[in-house]
Structures
1.
Amino acid sequence: MSTDFVMGIAVETIKVTLLVSAPMLLIGLAVGLAISIFQAVTQIQEMTLVFVPKIVAVLIALIVSLPWMLNIMISYTHNIFSNFSTYVR
């Protein structure tokens, strides 16, 4: 097992991790930005106003993108297990 091989597996793992986490992170960022703009416009400075809409939006994003995320994770896991004999050598 060469260092290029190990780095290839590490890069693929990082790509899968970023792809799987991106929908929730982007939705959380967008909702947080929208609520911050709303707070700045209305001058409401309540710190707890951000948390409930952000949690609900991330939960909805998780439910919507879950089949896609599972497909990516299953294909990655299948790739790892199907090439296991080349990893052990």
Note: The chain has a mean pLDDT of 91.
2.
Amino acid sequence: MDSPDTLATIVGFLRGIGIPVEPATLPDDGFLPAIAVRDGGLLYDADRLQWPGDLLHEAGHIAMADPASRPTVSDVGDDPGDEMAAIAWSYAAALAIGIEPQIVFHDHGYRGEGRSIAENFAQGRYFGVPMLQYYGLARFSHDEGEHYPAMIKWLR
């Protein structure tokens, strides 16, 4: 795992924006090792967590959830639009909290394409941003103010 400071930074950010995050003993892996989405929050097994940046990606899915149903989210689903939005969200979150995007977009995630995603985003070749704009989380290009990767708010 990356440094304990990285995990603490991520957990503090997520709690600060209203996504519950708690350590837990997780005997089985879900979609990601040592992380589970339960009731609109995240559980992580600190003893087994190898890639704390994965918490940001899973939180991105929670952030995309309809506010009325967010407290019941226990599965991130497989909607391609929300997947792309969660990727864009987690990149913006990494920058906002001052961690290297490679912590989220590591070589063991995103079907081995994490590094490529981070490199493309660093060059301004984004995807998923239109969904963030649609949900009111990021500004449209014609809007006043800072544009993506700056965010207006973190939860839909």
Note: The two ends are 30 Å apart (CA to CA).
